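Table S2 (continued). Query chain:
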Amino acid sequence: MTPKLYGAVILGLPLVIVAWALLWRRQRPVFWFALALIAVALGYLMATGATDDIANRLIPNLASPPPIRAK
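Corresponding output:
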């Protein structure tokens, strides 16, 4: 996976879990609207490159992993 996708997962997964925990049983249409808002926000952050920065800060060596040495 690319740093862009790692950053989206790092940001999006907790938001979806919180929305599910708070809204799934009581207000299902509001839950679906929250998912749509999360998707739009993640798309914006991916387009601006913010998810790359987040993933690279939280997972060092993600953009440039160490070289593999031949035996």
